[in-house]
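Please decode residue identities from the backbone states below.
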């Protein structure tokens, strides 16, 4: 027992499992059998190909994206994994629509006192027609709703009794400031503070348009990020019955100040009132008159799905899920010089890890009791759309998926001494996560910027929303032979000079040792999850616990 205590529980489980299954397979075949081993050079090969110019940046709806999906499917097939997509294929079709806001789009703000002004598209505001119609004309009153949040668990309701049907919601990005971890999780950003929640909530309440007031300190990014993200064509899942806004919009802080100034109001005082639970919505004597013109381009993208079926007839209907998005930003002919967003780190690395995990699992002598599901998803860069579709149309129902382990932009550096698993601490799986990290001599690095809400910006979030315990697995900043400052500088250099730029390219000098470590760690986490007697859950009181319970409630 002392020996087992030293090497750790997860290592013992793996040792017993691999030994027994290897001996069993060898006895059956009368040949020696050996478990597969993660190969960092295979990860390199995948990254090199997926980020090559041939794939033109793997753009959603662009030929290079389809080439990437085909490549990943062929790898899954070569490993002997079963297809888990549509109609016995490795592909899950994801119906989408490209929406590009055209230059004819115009906003004007007109007060009842006769004062008015026109705003300039991209300079003063950005907007998208989520309802996916070519033309939308809006003439509606504006209602200031603070942060636009209703959070019963915190006793917070910005809407009170206001009716937003046919109206325009004006609100701030982010959420009430807090140092109390039990109130909007203190300094950490919750989903209530994300712009996606605000558009969804106001649409549910019948608003025809929403104006999010941009403040750099509250958003954690400048106006140029908003303008660049919303100023080009954006992709959406094909419209379903979910309510959608005709004008999902951001406006500059100065524009919002000018807007409320039309009727003698002070925006800063309005912001201060919005910090209180006693805040009441304010209907402004101002109308938004908007003409939103869009070009619509329907298309179909693909998630790539494969499965190692579980050995147990009952538990085999449950699964451990691994995810990584394969899309990037594609090719932009308008750029000077290099026009291809190759996306080597983001996210050819995650795909390389996913494929190595698939190869390793496919080579295990005896399948685990639960199934192992692999999903390389599309349109992450367009707003986590491929994973959102997967969450709603998974071949294994969300209530039977024990965990989603996601891999996104794992930098190919040297041997890591830290791992980031932000969100794992919110699940019943966290003791295993910690124990396994110890086995790998990895320290767990806390989220360095919880106020930025990174948990809500990668594909694991889409699975969390439908109840699946989910988190991303990545390196920290401390690497063997280097001080932490070196890792920080590598991260800063990537963000400043390569992130979402054509310069995110494969280089022969890249060291995939760390990616291989993360893959091995991910294998052990998945192995442990597959062997647990019960499915993993969110901790009591977590924001995703109700979705987990709902996903596991029988439908009569």
């Amino acid at each position: 027992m002392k020996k087992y205590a030293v090497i750790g529980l997860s290592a013992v489980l793996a040792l017993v499992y691999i030994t027994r299954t290897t001996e069993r397979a060898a006895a059956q075949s009368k040949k020696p059998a050996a478990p597969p081993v993660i190969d960092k050079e295979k990860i390199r090969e995948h990254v090199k190909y997926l980020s090559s110019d041939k794939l033109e940046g793997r753009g959603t709806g662009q030929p290079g994206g389809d080439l990437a999906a085909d490549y990943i499917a062929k790898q899954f097939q070569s490993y002997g994994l079963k297809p888990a997509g549509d109609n016995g294929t490795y592909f899950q079709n994801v119906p989408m629509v490209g929406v590009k806001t055209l230059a004819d789009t115009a906003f004007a703000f007109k007060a009842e006192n006769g004062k008015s002004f026109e705003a300039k598209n991209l300079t003063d505001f950005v907007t998208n027609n989520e309802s996916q119609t070519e033309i939308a004309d809006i003439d509606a009153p504006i209602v200031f709703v603070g942060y636009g949040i209703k959070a019963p668990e915190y006793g917070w309701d910005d809407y009170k009794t206001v009716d937003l049907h046919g109206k325009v919601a004006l609100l701030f990005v982010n959420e009430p400031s807090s140092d109390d971890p039990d109130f909007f999780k203190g300094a950490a950003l919750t989903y209530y503070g994300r712009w996606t929640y605000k558009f969804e909530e106001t649409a549910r309440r019948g608003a025809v348009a929403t104006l999010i007031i941009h403040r750099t300190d509250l958003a954690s990014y400048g106006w140029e990020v908003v303008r660049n993200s919303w100023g080009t064509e954006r992709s959406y899942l094909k419209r379903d019955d979910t309510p959608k806004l005709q004008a999902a919009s951001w406006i500059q802080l100065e524009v919002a100040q000018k807007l409320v100034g039309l009727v003698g109001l002070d925006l800063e005082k309005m912001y201060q009132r919005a910090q209180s639970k006693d805040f009441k919505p304010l209907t402004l004597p101002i109308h938004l008159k908007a003409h939103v013109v869009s070009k619509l381009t329907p298309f179909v993208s693909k998630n790539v799905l494969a499965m190692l079926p579980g050995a147990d007839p009952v538990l085999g209907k449950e699964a451990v899920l691994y995810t990584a998005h394969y899309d990037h930003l594609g090719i932009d002919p308008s750029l000077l010089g290099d026009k291809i967003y190759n996306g080597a780190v983001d996210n050819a690395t995650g795909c390389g890890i996913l494929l190595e995990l698939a190869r390793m699992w496919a080579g295990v002598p005896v399948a685990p009791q639960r199934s192992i599901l692999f999903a390389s998803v599309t349109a992450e860069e367009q707003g986590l759309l491929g994973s959102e579709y997967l969450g709603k149309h998974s071949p294994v129902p969300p209530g039977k998926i024990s965990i989603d382990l996601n891999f996104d932009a794992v930098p190919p550096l040297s041997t890591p001494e830290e791992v980031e698993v932000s969100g794992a601490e919110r699940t019943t799986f966290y003791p295993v996560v910690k124990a396994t990290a110890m086995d790998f001599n990895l320290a767990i690095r806390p989220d360095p910027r919880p106020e930025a809400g990174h948990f809500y910006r990668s594909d694991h979030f889409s699975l969390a929303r439908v109840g699946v315990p989910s988190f991303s697995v990545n390196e920290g900043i401390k690497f063997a032979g280097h001080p932490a400052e070196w890792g920080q500088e590598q991260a800063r250099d990537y963000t400043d000079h390569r992130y979402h730029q054509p310069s995110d390219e494969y280089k022969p000098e890249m060291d995939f040792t760390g990616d291989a470590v993360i893959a091995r760690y991910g294998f052990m986490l998945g192995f442990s999850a597959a062997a647990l007697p019960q499915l993993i859950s969110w901790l009591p009181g977590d924001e995703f616990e109700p979705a987990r319970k709902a996903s596991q409630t029988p439908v009569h």
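Observation: The chain has 16 helices and 22 strands.
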